[in-house]
Design a protein that fits this description.
The radius of gyration is 25 Å and the shape is globular. Strand 2 and strand 3 form a beta hairpin. It is mainly α and about 400 residues long. The protein is about 55% helix and about 5% strand. The protein has 18 helices and three strands. The protein has three domains: about 90 residues, DNA polymerase, domain 1, CATH 1.10.150; about 80 residues; about 150 residues, Orthogonal Bundle (hpI Integrase, Chain A), CATH 1.10.443.10. Helix 2 packs across helix 4, helix 7 crosses helix 9 and helix 11 packs parallel to helix 15.
Length: about 400
């Protein structure tokens, strides 16, 4: 019998095999993109080959190879599970195996190198610059960046970005617009070809706080390496990237009250009160340097990806379906329930806009029901008195 959610069933089988959470997310992205062409279990080999060839015309060979491996893995699983009569992915990667994949990328186009220098002068973070370079290099593979027209960018938007979600499309359009507006400002172009690109509306996301029972179970049973990371997310609302780059000098435990100096996105700093539970953690603080150094013998802090992956893998091993970021949602929800001050929660989370914070702090269901109930009772009482 065909399950209602073959993608979810496949991803669950990957997690049960101990596949890394980052790999599971990558496979989910590819499967959802292919599913926009039609139900996965109804795809045929000819349609899959057409999908592969379309992708090969717009992205690097190594990206195509990875995507094909993900899709072939899904159809091998579906065939073994009896969901399809044959393995539709069989032979899909044969042509790719005969195509050599370059081990190194070529240099950035001169205009892109100038643009990244401009971003650094404006103090953009290296992470933001990396995302912009990735998007613009993909656009350059379709045609040289400075030779694009409004028509070719419109085709890029309709063909390439159609398989992406609203947030990814929005970011890609912003990256392209930023480059072409800069190119016009420095006289590399006379007109901005990206002016007609449409920016998708951001969907309203509801908060996804981790339930208190799950959080308690996770923290009580966490290994010594992971427990402080969970505590910092739950009690301090820190992102994984903020946890990873903490230094001993950022722990201001000698002042009253104790606090953490947090280095957030865009190199923005904020001060978060340090709860007593974190101060009394059994893991001793280093005398100086990184709080969470690498364990592979190399210098530097643990990466944000490692913090996220290890915490999420641990949570899933405890049969907790939420992830590390939902613990940050839980912190925002608890702070708002206690203070009723969205501006305070915004500062604690390091958000630039209160609208972003509103997507983190969930309403308290019981209180919301009381308010709705009290207001709903009023018109009926007024109507009854009028009728009398």
């Amino acid at each position: 019998m065909t399950p209602g959610d073959p993608i979810g069933a496949h991803l669950a089988s990957l997690r049960a095999r101990g596949i890394a959470d980052s790999t599971v997310r990558a496979r989910r992205y590819r499967l959802l993109a292919l599913a926009r062409r039609g139900p996965l279990l109804d795809q045929d080999p000819a349609g899959l080959r057409a999908w592969r060839d379309e992708m090969a015309a717009t992205v690097q060979a190594c990206t195509v190879r990875t995507a094909v491996q993900h899709i072939c893995g899904f159809y091998r699983w579906a065939y073994a599970a009896g969901l399809v009569e044959r393995d539709h992915g069989e032979g899909l990667g044969d042509a790719l195996r005969r195509t050599p994949v370059p081990h190194r990328r070529g240099p950035d186009p001169a205009a892109l190198r100038r643009y990244t220098d401009h971003l650094r002068l404006r103090n953009f973070s290296e992470r933001t610059i990396m995302h912009r370079r990735y998007c613009l290099r993909a656009l350059d593979r379709r045609a040289p960046l400075l030779e694009h027209t409004a028509e070719t960018l419109g085709e890029w938007e309709l063909v390439t970005l159609a398989s992406c979600g609203p947030s990814a499309r929005r970011n890609a359009v912003y990256h392209a617009r930023g480059f072409y507006q800069w190119a016009v400002s420095v006289s590399l172009l006379q007109a901005d070809p990206s002016a007609a690109l449409s920016v998708p509306r951001s969907p309203r996301r509801l908060p996804r706080p981790m339930p208190e029972a799950d959080l308690h179970t996770a923290i009580v049973n966490a290994p010594p390496r992971i427990r402080p990371w969970l505590m910092l997310a739950a009690l301090g609302g820190l992102r994984c990237c903020e946890i990873a780059c903490l230094r001993r000098e950022d722990v201001l435990n000698s002042q009253a009250p104790p606090a953490l100096l947090v280095h957030g996105k865009g190199d923005k700093e904020r001060v978060v009160p340090l709860p007593a539970q974190l101060l009394h953690e059994p893991t001793p603080l280093p005398r100086a340097g990184w709080l969470f150094a690498r364990l592979d013998g190399r210098s530097g802090p643990v990466s944000a990806a490692i913090v996220s992956e290890q915490c999420n893998r641990y949570l899933h091993s405890m049969a907790i379906t939420h992830n590390m970021h939902s613990i940050r949602h839980r912190a925002a929800t608890a702070w708002y329930a206690e203070s009723r001050d969205l501006r305070l929660v915004q500062e604690l989370l390091g958000h630039a806009s209160p609208e972003t914070t509103a997507g983190y702090a969930a309403l308290v269901p019981g209180e919301a029901a009381d308010v709705v109930g009290r207001v709903a009772a009023r018109p009926f009482g007024l109507a009854a008195r009028r009728l009398a």
